[in-house]
Amino acid sequence: MEAVKLTDPVDFLERAGPLLLADEARHNLILGLAGTLRDQPDVYPDFGLWLVEDAGSAVGAAMRTRPFNLVLARGSDDAVAMLAGSIDEELPGVVGALPEVDSFVAARGVPGEPRFRQGIYALRTVRPPQPAAGHPRAASRPDRPILLDWWRAFAVEALGEEQPDVERIARSVDYKLSEPAGGIALWEDEGRPVSAVGFGSPTPTGIRIGPVYTPPELRGRGYASALTAHVSAEQLAAGRRFCFLYTDLANPTSNKIYTDIGYERVRDSVEYAFV
To answer: 3-class DSSP state for residue 71?
Structure first.
């Protein structure tokens, strides 16, 4: 086996493709990010790409859009250990599916603290939820102020960020509003936005849904369920075979919302912070 560092996302996707596409749901995050590097290089100008190959075939892969965590793909125990030992830069953390992410942390030899335990969900057919008052529409530039507020609130509540990076959030919102294969949908009731769902980072046959946010005072009215179902159905109708999303396993309410409309839990994922 040999560990290699790449600089070209096209080369990375070509060489890692068979490994990643063998389980597209498991690898939707790394596939979506690598596709963004390939198609819109200005979004993440600073990145790293790593492969472990055996007899010319990828048996392990990882990538990072700096300053964020390393994203780990599935690999053999030996390949994961080789990645852990060959990535010669300080990492704030790593995210990946079980059990490979646990193996990486153990092989890295740096104390790792689990920050989030998430479920990776995939949907092939939408089960319509109970009707909610209002209707969906696409978000546009005039909606940017409320989206910035909601993305900041999401970062605090769902991601545990005490002081969210406002510049990063602004870039995320602006990217979603301009992404050719993605966007943000809003649910409106009585003439005002009451919930938002983002989507983007497509994989070869799927697309990732999120963030999903409804202000606390407007929850329990079915807005998020209706909007997530609407966005997911639109993506399937446009030719996607799958929709993917991540949920906080400590939040049974959100998990139930997604399973009720047809999402199935296919993998568990953990984000570790190195301390």
So the answer is: strand
Radius of gyration of the chain (CA): 19
DSSP assignment letter at 268 = E
CB 156 within 8 A of CB 173: no
Which range, of 64-78, 96-110, 165-179, 202-216, averages the lowest pLDDT? 165-179
CA-to-CA separations, 65 to 28, 48, 103, in angstroms, rounded: 15, 7, 21
Q: What is the pLDDT of residue 231?
A: 98
- What is the Cα–Cα distance from 125 to 163, expressed in whole angstroms? 38
Least Cα distance to 158 among 68, 28, 255, 231 occurs for: 255
Top-ranked range on mean pLDDT: pick from 155-169, 241-255, 256-270:
256-270
Handedness of CA 70, 117, 216, 126 (dihedral sign): positive
What would the pLDDT profile of 96-139 be if each residue is shown by its tens digit? 999 999 999 999 999 999 998 999 999 999 999 999 999 999 99
* DSSP per-residue codes, 3-19: EEEES-HHHHHHHHHHH
Taking residues 257-263, report their average pLDDT.
Answer: 96
**Secondary structure (DSSP) of 120-168:** EEEESS-------SSEEEE--GGGHHHHHHHHHHHHHHTT--SS--HHH
Which segments of the chain are extended strands (E)? 2-6, 47-54, 57-65, 70-72, 93-97, 112-123, 135-138, 183-189, 192-200, 206-213, 242-248, 264-274
- Quick check: bond before 136 cis, omega within 30? no
Nearest to 35 by CA among 249, 195, 208, 163: 208
